[in-house]
Fold:
Amino acid sequence: MRFTEQLWQEISPLYDAILQHGFVKKLTAGSLAIETFQYYIQQDALYLVDFSRALSQLAARSAQPDEMLLFCEFAQNAIRVERSLHETYFTRYNIEPQTEKMPACFAYTNYLLATTSLQSPAVGVAAVLPCFWIYREVGTYIYQRAVSENPYRDWINTYAGPDFDRVVTQMLDLTDRLAETAGPAERAGMREAVRLSSRLEWSFWNDAYTQTRWPV
Ligand SMILES: Cc1ncc(CN)c(N)n1
Structure:
């Protein structure tokens, strides 16, 4: 069994919890409140900058030039492609940019930055993997069920689309390659990183759904 197949088995309860979350259910039905989406997209704009920074760190730390190229491309796309999707919504709903990260966004971005800079490159790659993988799976799941008049159609099409699928396949292949040369402790670290980032994906949607702010 591929290492990434094992990973998917391990995180499938977390993935199921994401699919059962009100945010995803309402996004699918097209009934997600605009304020909820607003919060999400404001936080996601902040997230993407650090996500791109984490990918740039992986590029700098890659052992292979081809991997460097991949991470440079992913880092650029995180800002160019996903930001253009965001701009569509910022304009459509008149959303003001936010400058303060709320708890889940803060935890997730700091976790990604710390892991991609301080852990081994293989563990760093595992930490960013759910950012790609879970979005493709959730995007595809929603795409297959979403109503056609869904106001969030652009978001759904981006993550269920062929370009994003190609990137996710490259990430999965790379993760499997790195796992082949990793020792048991490093593989355990990779599994833990995938679990943690998957939890943080759930938290990111949950914060938007509950409009979480810093309590003090
Ligand atoms: C929180 C989060 N995770 C993942 C993605 C997809 N790169 C995103 N835009 N936002």
Observations:
- The chain has nine helices and no strands.
- The radius of gyration is 17 Å.
- The pocket of NSP is lined by residues 44, 47-48, 82, 131, 135, 201, 204 (CB under 6 Å).
